[in-house]
Amino acid sequence: MASQVINGKAFEYALLLEFYNRLEVITSVSITKNESYHIAKGYFESFKENKQDTFRITASAAINFLVDIEPRLSNGISKDDILFLEIVSDKAGQSGDVRDILLIRSLQKWEIGISAKNNHRAVKHSRLSLKIDFGEKWLNVPCSQNYFDEIRPTFKMLEEIKEKDNSSKWSSIEDMHQIVYIPILNAFRKELLRLDEENPNVVAENLVQYLIGNEDFYKVIKGDKIVEIQAYNLNGTLNLPFEKIKPKAKIPKLKLPSRLIEIVYQEDSTTTLLVSLNEGWQISFRIHNASSRVEPSLKFDINLISAPHTLFTNHIFINGN
Q1: Which residue, among 33, 45, 32, 39, has the nearest Cα to 9 in the 3D structure?
Q2: Among 270, 141, 117, which Cα is nearest to 198's?
Q3: How would you class 264 by CB atoms within 10 Å of its CB: exposed for 0-12, middle for 13-18, buried for 19 or more?
Q4: For the ranges 41-50, 118-127, 150-159, which has the lowest average pLDDT?
Q5: Could you read off the pLDDT of 204-229 as tens digits, one per residue?
Q6: Do the Cβ atoms of 207 and 138 come closer than 8 Å?
Q7: Are residues 97 and 213 in contact, defined by beta-carbon separation less than 8 angstroms?
Q8: How far does the chain reach from its first CA to its final CA, in angstroms?
């Protein structure tokens, strides 16, 4: 996990640096040197030069494309129309904003955001426990008392194991999938379906917005010799023209789902639920214990398996180190 964070932050810095280098010759640009900037810069500089080059080459390829589809990046109204580049603090993510980098033109009342990922696609890591009302937290619709009654015996059992011996390992629980994971997943599945049924047109949309954020953004995923750019254009704020200058590619608005279709276990799995929604959305929820020691909470690794065909995606292949 630590190396994942370090790589991710280093990639954020590389993107910021390449944006600056690419745009400073054609428009007024300024980097906001906040705490997040200095942290990311430190991580980037901790890598050897050849690794830094790989980050920069990948970032540069993504930026060339973004400049083509976002004319406002390179076009200001005047010299005073400064493009501010900023790495966002991690706290923003807690309020449903998944963007890591913001590019802002105050004079145009315009901004776009970028979520930078280094070799990973998980959208969220959310917890379940007796104290967490996932309905309230994710969907703005509270869970029922039945749900809490159903998960209570399992989490109480885990609490008792921890109280008895604080160093108890999960591996000490026999048939853990049968007695911990499956009861919790079954209760979660039942509750999600109930919430959707009782709140038509609300739960499916709120679930996707909880996972991918409430602001439009580009996701830039750095892979091995490839970079993938996805456009989450939920509100239609991406891909705008600047005066008479049009973007070089058209990005459709993304359709949010309005209902759950089904929730099933992934084939041959006791840890993963697949949630299918209309409009072509599918999400996987893999439950796991976050640490080696027993604790009365579990974690979800949540991934977007498929998105509507209106999700604009572009792959750029890179010849680098």
Answers
A1: 39
A2: 141
A3: exposed
A4: 118-127
A5: 999 998 888 889 999 999 998 999 99
A6: yes
A7: yes
A8: 24
Do residues 318 and 58 make contact, with C-beta atoms less than 8 angstroms apart? yes
Q: Which residue has the tokens 């049968």?
A: 178
The alpha-helical segments, DSSP class H, found in the chain are: 2-23, 35-45, 49-69, 134, 145-164, 176, 182-198, 203-212
User: Which residue shows structure tokens 């830039």?
Assistant: 220
Please, are residues 286 and 259 in contact by the beta-carbon 8 Å criterion?
Answer: no
Distance of CA 210 to the CA centre of its chain: 9
| Residue 86 DSSP symbol | E
Sheet of strand 272-277: strand arrangement? 122-129, 297-306, 282-288, 272-277, 260-265
Query: Residue 304 — very low, low, confident or very high, per pLDDT cuts 50/70/90?
Result: confident
The token duo for 87 is 């790495």
Q: How far is CA 239 from CA 63, 81, 235, in A?
A: 14, 19, 11
Locate tokens 């579990």: which residue? 298
Which residue, 207, 249, 218, 256, is CA-closest to 234?
256
Q: What pLDDT sits at residue 90? A: 76
What is the residue type of 300? F
Tell me the three-class secondary structure of 247-292, residue by residue. Answer: CCCCCCCCCCCCCEEEEEECCCCCCEEEEEEHHHCEEEEEEECCCC
Backbone Cα Rg of the chain = 22
Edge-to-edge strand ranges of the sheet holding 226-232: 29-31, 83-87, 101-105, 110-118, 217-222, 226-232, 312-317
Residues 112/232, Cβ–Cβ less than 8 Å: no
Name which of 8, 17, 6 is nearest 53 in CA terms: 17
Q: Give the mean pLDDT of 304-312.
A: 89
Q: How far apart are CA 206 and CA 261, in angstroms?
A: 15
Q: Nearest to residue 253, comparing CAs of 279, 278, 275, 228?
A: 279
Q: 């997040």: which residue's tokens?
A: 36
